[in-house]
Every structure is written in C-alpha cells, then in structure tokens.
Write a structure and sequence with these properties.
With 412 residues, the chain is α/β, with parallel strands linked by helices. Helix content is 35%, strand content 23%. Strands 8, 11, 12, 13, 16, 17, 18, 19 and 20 form a nine-stranded mixed beta sheet that branches. A five-stranded parallel beta sheet has the order 2-1-3-4-5, sandwiched between helices. Strands 6-7 form a two-stranded antiparallel ribbon. A hairpin with a 5-residue loop joins strand 9 and strand 10. Helix 1 packs across helix 9, helix 4 crosses helix 6 and helix 10 crosses helix 15. The longest helix has 16 residues. The radius of gyration is 25 Å and the shape is elongated. Bound molecules: flavin mononucleotide. Flavin mononucleotide binds next to helix 5.
Length: 412
C-alpha cells in the first residue's frame, strides 16, 4: 500500500519576509519564490508603501500565505507582530528602504514590519535598496552604524549598479539569489542538522570503454541532489560527491565532481579522512557502477566489418559503502545506503534487508528501478534494524526530508 506523506510543519524553517516601499520590491517576490522552493515557510508582510509597488496577491500567491499589512488588523485576535516574530526563525526585510533602516536603528515599532523586527526572537536581515545619494547620506550612514553597533541585524548589499532613476552607484539591491543564500545561511543555524557534516553521493558513474564510450546507468542524480539541498537547508555542512549529471549545485553545498567509481572512492576518502572523522553521516545515493571494463582502450575502438564485434571483459568495482562500513569502529559516521531493485515490493524489501546486514549500514532506502530512475518522484521504504516502513510515494524533495528525519534520529 502507498501512503502519501503529509508535510511536517515542525521541521520547516519559517521566514517572515517583510517588503518595504522601493522600486526593488518586485525582486522580493523572487526571493520568496526561492525560499519556498527550498522548502521553507514564508510569511509575507508588507508596509503600506510596499503595496503600492507590488500587489499583495502576487506575494500571497507565491508564499501560499496571507499577506500581513496591518498591526491593527481587526480580524486577528491578539498581537500580530508578536505572533509573526514568535513563528519566524528569521525576519528578512527585502527590499529595505532608508526609512525602515531609520526605524530599526531607533527601535521604533510604529508599523507591523518595524514592530515584528523589534520583537524578533532570531536573526534579522535587511537588503537595502535606494538611490545612491540616500545610501551615502550621513543620516543613513549613522543608522547603519547604529545597527552594526547593536549587532542584531545582518545587512546584504546593496551593490554598485544602475538604480531605477538610471543613475549608477551604490544603492542597487543585491540580487535575489544572494539574498536567499544569506537567509539560508541564517536559517541553517536554526536547523536540526546544524553543526553536522554530511557527505552525500549522487548520480551515476561512467566507466570508460575508450576515450569516447563508457558504461553508465540511468541515474539522474535528483535524489542525491535533493538530499544535499535539504540537509543544507536543515543546517548541515554538506559535501556532495556528484557523478556526471547536469544539475545545478544546491546553494551552500560543497560539490566535488567525479566520473568513475574509483574517482568517487578517492573523493569520499578525501572528504572522510583516514579515521572517517570528516563526517557525521554518509548518504550513498549514487548509483555506482558494479562493474567497469577491465581495461579501457587509449584510442577509439574502430568498427571492423570483417571481424566480430569486440568483447568487453568486465572487472568488479569496489563496494564503496561496504568499504567505509568495514573501517568504522564506532557509531559514526552514520551510513545510509540505497537499494534499487527491478522486482516487486517484497523482493525490493528483501534485497534492502540483506544489504542492511551484509554491508553493515544503519539505514537502507529501498526503491524500485522503474519508479526511481530519471523521475522527479519516487516511492521508497526505509529499512533499518527496527524493521521496514511502508512504501511512501512523493517528490524526491519530500522523500529527502523523510530520509533526513530518520538520519536525525540515528544521529541521536
Ligand atoms: C517611485 C518611488 C520609489 C521609491 N524608491 C525608494 C527606494 O528605492 N528606496 C527608499 O529607501 N525609498 C524609496 N522611496 C521612498 C519610500 O517609499 C518612502 O520613504 C516610504 O515612506 C517608505 O515607507 P516604508 O519604509 O514603510 O515602506 C520611493 C518612493 C517612490 C514614490
């Protein structure tokens, strides 16, 4: 039976994203989109001026949350600014006007955005956007100096570039990806994998036959990349050892590209160190080729009509996760393997159980080849010493969180 997962609200990081009145306010929508895409909950707030620049409907549509604009909202029973500040792991003001910087510097709380920032329980981030003369004005400089002195607010940008008036100078808001990355970094300090180092492998390996041909497999790398992105979003320092895939590197993740199983082995040894102390957990989502051509030709093998096609003798590749398990003397690093089979659920689970025992790993993610390879979704069961979970069908992003939930438990 397949069970569809429900989102676990307790594990999602929450950003109160406040927009104030500058032309750059439209870029806050992209920041919201990036944060939502990374799996965070975004609670949008807007000042009255901001609503003149961007429609609240756009922001609420992207965030899937109502936009809060009024501290005196009669439909809210209680103190809205306190409730927002309580829920938010980070309060981010994007774009931040000269005026809101002044309000923050002086501890004012005369509107919902300023009051929420003043009440924040976690970090506050501002992404200023204004004309260069406003930015360089002594009053703005003094406000920023005061915020720096208080040490409660991080500032992203602005940068030098053209502003809305056509003038060029310091005052253009930082790009949305930069702002989203800075928010992610603040959120990482609040995640349940904060302070953990996780090594993830992803994608296929390509084993050369000659300089132009290889033996490979259909792994897209999506599951491993989703695991790396979600582990990072939950606070881990992540090293992603990636086989040949065409996927962008998740924000904040250290990526090491490899092609063959031997190269993946070397990259893992480098990331883990001789005593395996370089990681708290290793998640082997890569589809490492079991076999490679015993010898690769140095030149392209030619077609010869007069003789039979060449036979490719195979050699066995090292079993990377079993090698790491055999070197492990204590509970760390926690080892997570994937078992991919072509049979029905029972044979996939049987194979996963055998893998758990024979390779001496802590958790095996069981999945079927026809549901996994090349798909954005998958259906998996988690098998550990305590037994097997039911199969769950979901996006690879959602499944990554399920696997990481179990990893957090195993890490204790
Ligand atoms: C067309 C237009 C563009 C503006 N752009 C900016 C800007 O980029 N940065 C800024 O600090 N203020 C800008 N302002 C001024 C702010 O909107 C104004 O100071 C407002 O009171 C800020 O209110 P808020 O901080 O509550 O959103 C702009 C005003 C207008 C009319």
């Amino acid at each position: 039976m397949t069970e569809r997962p429900r989102p676990n609200e307790s594990r999602r990081r929450v950003v109160a994203l406040a927009v104030t009145g500058s032309i750059a306010a439209y870029k806050a929508v992209e920041v919201a989109r990036l944060l939502v895409k990374a799996g965070h909950r975004v609670l949008p707030l807007m000042t009255a001026s901001a609503t003149r620049f961007v429609g609240p409907v756009t922001l609420s549509g992207i965030c899937g949350e109502p936009v809060a604009t009024d501290m005196w909202d009669p439909t809210y029973p209680g103190e809205l600014h306190v409730a927002l500040a309580d829920r938010a792991d980070v309060v981010a003001i994007v774009s931040a006007t000269a005026d809101v910087l002044a309000r923050l510097a002086h501890g004012r709380a005369d509107d919902l955005v300023a009051a929420t920032a003043l009440c924040a329980k976690g970090p506050v981030l501002v992404a200023p956007a204004m004309h260069p003369r406003m930015w360089s004005h002594p009053a703005t400089r003094a406000n920023l100096a005061e915020l720096a002195r208080q040490g409660r607010v991080s500032v992203v940008g602005p940068v030098v570039g053209p502003v809305a008036s056509g003038d060029v100078g310091m005052g253009r808001m930082a790009e949305p990806v930069e702002i989203a990355r800075a928010i992610e970094e603040l959120l990482a300090g609040a995640g349940d994998l904060s302070g953990r180092r996780v090594v993830v492998t992803a994608g296929p390996t390509f084993e050369p036959i000659d300089p132009v041909r290889f033996l490979g497999n259909r792994s897209s790398g999506r599951m491993g990349f989703a695991l790396a992105a979600r582990a990072r979003a939950r606070g881990a320092d992540v090293v992603l050892v990636a086989g040949p895939v065409a996927l962008p590197t998740p924000a904040g993740v250290e990526r090491r590209d490899v092609e063959t199983a031997e190269q993946m082995r070397a990259a893992l040894a480098d990331a883990l160190g001789p005593d395996l102390g370089g990681a708290d957990a290793v998640v082997m989502a890569a589809a490492v080729a079991d076999f490679r051509p015993a010898s690769a030709s140095g030149t392209k093998i030619k077609k010869d009509a007069s003789s039979a096609p060449p036979a490719i003798a195979l050699a066995q590749n090292p079993d990377l996760i079993a090698e790491i398990a055999s070197k492990r003397s204590g509970p760390k690093p926690v080892l997570v393997a994937f078992a991919l089979e072509t049979g029905d659920d029972a044979s996939v689970l049987g194979y996963a159980r055998r893998k758990l025992e024979q390779k001496r790993v802590d958790l095996v993610v069981a999945n079927a080849a026809h549901e996994s390879l090349g798909h954005a979704d998958n259906r998996v069961a988690l098998v550990d010493a305590a037994g097997a979970s039911p199969f769950v069908a979901a996006t690879k992003d959602a499944l990554a969180d399920r696997i990481l939930d179990r990893l957090v438990t195993l890490l204790g």
